[in-house]
Amino acid sequence: MNKLFLGDAFEVLPTLKSESVDLVFIDPPYFMQTEGSLVRSEGTLFDEIAEHWDKFDSFNDYDIFTINYLNEIKRIMKKNASLWIIGSFQNIYRIGKILQDMGFWIINDIIWKKSNPTPNFKGTRFTNSHETLLWVIKDKNSKYTFNYKTMKYLNGNKQMGSVWEIPICAGSERIKIDGKKAHPTQKPEKLLENIILATSKQKDIVLDPFMGIGTTAAVAKRLGRNYIGIEREEKYFNLAKKRVENEKVLDTPLYRNILDIKPPKVKITDMIEKGYFKKNENFLDKNEKFSFKLDENGKLEKHSIHKLSAKLQNKINFNGWEYWYVKRDDKLISINEIRKEYWKKELGYECINWS
Description:
Number of strands: 16
CATH architecture of the largest domain: 3-Layer(aba) Sandwich
Helix content: 25-40%
Strand order of the largest sheet: 1-12-11-2-5-7-6-8
CATH class of the largest domain: Alpha Beta
Strand content: 15-25%
CATH topology of the largest domain: Rossmann fold
Largest sheet: 8 strands, mixed
Number of domains: 2
Distance between the termini: 35 Å
């Protein structure tokens, strides 16, 4: 854990333990198949991806490459781990077929919509303004992590959709050497933040087998996750190592996914024993239309607080914690607020409401 490996992924991955990681992010070679040079409208050259690691002799060679690393990744993933792979039209459909052929189960495809895409200089096709991410699990029965409430909060208390508008790396976020991009495919940190916050828990292990200049590891460290990164190009590895070493852990309720952690169950009898409620205390609805005495077994008229609140509203089920009130100093107080006080003082759990 918390180590970066300088070496070929196909040599390092076999040394990792089976079923040992919780989340994998893969930014593989896209096999862009570009030829010649691209020239901007003002006459300058565009630094298109022309690295040796993006070159393959054929689609079959690329497929074999993909199958080989995915076999190792599947072995290393825990039973309920998540895997994210990013790509573009050149490779993502081939990867998707291979994933399904290998038994992986696709949960979502996410569109990363670039708010500042590189224009199509030749004007021969539509501007390629998005990339696709596949979120998959080992099989359809995996009980994967999804921090739904965290992502809803980040999206202004609306369900987060499958289109994420995020700018490509620019300005201070773009790592450069002598004024030039250090890596041609550096991904924005916000993209990795979404992935890691959505599908992992604090202290989970996050693996990136083609880590480049270390975006995944740096973001994982910041969010309180453990990380493993692999990179074979020494120039990229050295940048990643320095970047991750300089990153600081930020421990916040949001990064702990506190919104998605289920609070501990509480029995009313325990709260009676601790003095938060009293035997024969009146439980009332907010309009004070109904009033029932609490017995020593935590029941109201021999009903649970949930069943009685549902019955009074002609409903099948209802959460009694949200229905009943008690009077303290002649003021109505929700029993749920009293439960929050019990959580905090007796169990050390603090309920945070950011809505």
